Amino acid sequence: SKFGLRGLAEALQQEVIADDIHVSLIFPPDTETPGLEEENKRRPRLTSIIAASSGAMKADEVAKKALDGIKSGSFIVPCNSEGFLLSIATAGLSPQRSVLMAFVEVVAAGLIRFVALCFQWNWYGSIEKWHAQGKRSGN
User: Fold this and answer.
1) How many domains does the chain divide into?
2) In which domain of life is the source organism classified (predicted)?
3) Residues 6+ apart with CB under 8 A from 31
């Protein structure tokens, strides 16, 4: 669903840029809200293991970062370091209004790809451990 939203945002930005309308896509981590507390009660254990790698942020922090990003006209608005790395790793054909960030994306792409692979390998390791524990316990 997140990938679909990104594709929709990129397509929408292309359609409305001539009207000086700027689309922003927020990359929030888990956000400390009553909704997250309820989700955590029912969320699959594996999802919790993967989500724990980026931690959670307070709602007011996420809101401030989101509003600041929207006000600045940023297409991608990361809320934490993982979101920032994700935005660079997946830049592709996304709009970029900052020459400095465009430069960072180009120069850092290879290194960020390596870091992203490390995250992915860590997630896969966690998934494999979780499945192995389930098989041993008969679940």
Assistant:
1) 1
2) Eukaryota
3) 56, 57, 58, 59, 62
Determine the structural domain holding residue 95 and report its residue range.
Answer: 1-109
> How far is residue 70 from each of residues 47, 54, 117, measured CA to CA in Å?
29, 23, 29
Please give the chain's pLDDT, 139 residues, in tens.
778 898 999 999 999 999 999 999 998 888 988 888 888 888 888 777 777 767 789 999 999 999 999 999 899 999 988 888 878 888 877 888 888 888 988 888 888 888 888 888 888 888 888 888 876 665 5
Rounded to whole angstroms, the Cα distance separating 133 from 49 reads: 13
Tokens of 62: 């996420």
Q: Are 56 and 31 in contact (CB under 8 A)?
A: yes
> Which of 23, 86, 25, 32 has its CA nearest to residue 61?
32
pTM over 0.85: no
